[in-house]
Write a structure and sequence with these properties.
Elements: H1 2-15, H2 31-37, H3 40-52, E1 97-98, E2 104-107, H4 116-126, E3 132-141, E4 144-152, E5 168-171, E6 179-182, H5 197-207, E7 213-222, H6 226-238, E8 245-249, E9 252-253, E10 256-260, H7 267-277, E11 280-290, H8 308-324, E12 328-330, H9 333-342
Parallel strand pairs: 2-10, 4-12, 7-11
Antiparallel strand pairs: 1-2, 3-4, 3-8, 3-9, 5-11, 6-11, 7-10
Helix pairs in contact: 4-5, 6-8, 8-9
Region (Disordered): 1-78
């Protein structure tokens, strides 16, 4: 009891003493003071622990207009294995619409009807990609379709080496009938000497005050011998003893680019205006994509990729096999691969087409 009674007054005396509050200079111990009071290992661990809790250095984008989270859009030609090296974005640029039959893209963007440089620059860019030529082989008896095949020939227009390309931009020349700013084809107006063809025609389109006006770029294929290919196809079909009606066509999609001035009121008003006053059409520019530098049979002819004969030797068996299977769809590289690896198409000349009477 005596010890406990002596301990309590001592605690009370300490509590009544003034509290010491360190000044600013004494608020935090210096590193030198810490190093002297604690072992070196403890000081090192304390420093390391403090460094781990320091905020990371700022590492934002170097350009204030660049967002590092936004995916980078590649420019120029794009490479997809098995496809021609082209800038495929040019087949449907922003502010354009693709027609239902995939032949035409069109735009009514304001700037394309107001700025010569913008229009001519865009047309030159869109001319750097080819159209998509195809072969359609259709066989029918009455209302029954026995086969309907499609083949894509676009790869025959684009060489592996870009330096071997022969495509070019062509404007109408003197004495050539074309839509030159009216409702009907005409020989006039003509460009003056020294005028740049594309820019000059774009300038005339921009200055045209017609209520409805259009400017069209057409992509065309040159020097492909359609007649020779059609003859080979018809002979191949005849070898299968087919007695129906055979149709061979060469459609071309992604072949036209049309610029039209914006609707002044709405589409209905534009349609009515066109019905009564017509359109002011400009169809004076073509992007020419040659299959070869000359027509078939001419001396010195050089094909961009391969000749019609070489192409036919590669594709006749896949076509024959697809006909024997009465296919309705595309004939692709997969069919060619199966013919090479599995000899499909060999000996498929005779096909059981069934009696003719049941199809009429």
């Amino acid at each position: 009891m005596d010890q406990q009674s002596g301990f309590i007054p001592e605690k009370a005396a300490k509590a009544t003493r003034p509290v010491h509050r360190p000044g600013n200079n004494e608020a935090e111990p210096s590193s030198s003071g810490l190093s002297g009071d604690m072992p070196e290992s403890s000081a090192a661990s304390t420093t390391t622990h403090a460094e781990q809790h320091q905020p990371p250095p700022y590492s934002g984008p170097s350009n204030k207009f660049t967002d590092s989270r936004r995916p980078v859009v590649p420019r120029g030609p794009q490479c997809y294995p098995g496809l021609p090296v082209l800038d495929y974005r040019q087949y449907l640029p922003p502010m354009f619409e693709l027609s239902a039959d995939s032949t035409t893209i069109s735009s009514k963007a304001n700037y394309l009807s107001e700025n010569v440089k913008a229009l001519s620059s865009l047309l030159r860019t869109l001319a750097t990609v080819p159209p998509k030529p195809q072969i359609l082989i259709h066989g029918s008896r009455g209302r029954r379709v026995d086969f309907s095949l499609r083949l894509n020939l676009m790869s025959l227009l684009v060489p592996d080496n870009p330096r071997d390309r022969m495509d070019y931009l062509r404007c109408v020349t003197t004495g050539e009938m074309a839509y030159r700013g009216g409702n009907d084809p005409s020989l006039k107006p003509e460009l003056r000497a020294g005028e740049d063809g594309l820019e000059a025609w774009c300038a005339r389109f921009i200055k045209d005050q017609s209520s409805v006006k259009t400017f069209t770029l057409e992509r065309v294929v040159a020097n492909l011998d359609h007649n020779w290919i059609e003859g080979q196809i018809r002979s191949l079909v005849a070898a299968t003893s087919y007695r129906g009606v055979v149709m061979v066509q060469f459609p071309v999609t992604h072949a036209r680019v049309t610029i039209q001035n914006p609707d002044k009121v709405n589409k209905f008003f534009t349609s009515v205006t066109t019905l009564f006053s017509g359109k002011s059409k400009y169809e004076v520019v073509k992007a020419v994509w040659p299959f070869a530098n000359a027509k078939n049979g001419e001396q010195g002819r050089k094909c961009i990729v391969q000749s019609e004969k070489t192409w036919w030797e590669e594709w006749k068996d896949p076509i024959q096999y697809a006909i024997s299977q009465k296919r309705q769809g595309w004939v692709t590289n997969e069919d060619k691969l199966e013919c090479i690896m599995e000899s499909k198409g060999k000996g498929a000349a005779l096909v059981d087409w069934g009696p003719d009477e049941e199809y009429y």
